[in-house]
């Protein structure tokens, strides 16, 4: 049996069928291959924490841009106007003469004035088309008929089949009533 002294493996003796003693050295373990998974894992952790730190710094910078009169969206999805900015809190006007105090961390986005007005007040800026062809009216009469992509044909077929089954069921009920009226014992 091989012995280990101070962490150094000794050669292993084996005896082949011929009876001669053959000494084999144990294979050295490549330390780089052993630690490669750990190195990759540590590298991935460093990259993930770095990107998370960048996102966190961007959020802090965005929250520092808040000034009174700025439109914001909270992390809960509420739109409001900033009235006052403190160290850790923000006073928001949710509706006219309705104010609420929020933590700065509860602000999800600081909106541009145009975007805030579009969302809150419904003011749309006119959309200018890329080309002028959609602005002109074509009086040539070369319009192709519009295709109706609805399921009217399939629904009509299903309605007709349903009507037929209802009619057949009504006929059966009527025949059953007529049969009872012909002097049977159960007829009323």
UniProtKB/TrEMBL annotation:
Residues 139-154, 163-188 have a biased composition (Basic and acidic residues). The chain crosses the membrane at residues 29-48. It is a single-pass membrane protein. Signal peptide: none annotated. Residues 121-188 are annotated as: Disordered. It comes from the Bacteria. InterPro entries: Preprotein_translocase_YajC. It is found in: Cell membrane. Keywords: Cell membrane, Membrane, Protein transport, Translocation, Transmembrane, Transmembrane helix, Transport. Belongs to the YajC family. This is Preprotein translocase subunit YajC. The lineage of its organism: Bacteria, Bacillati, Actinomycetota, Actinomycetes, Kitasatosporales.
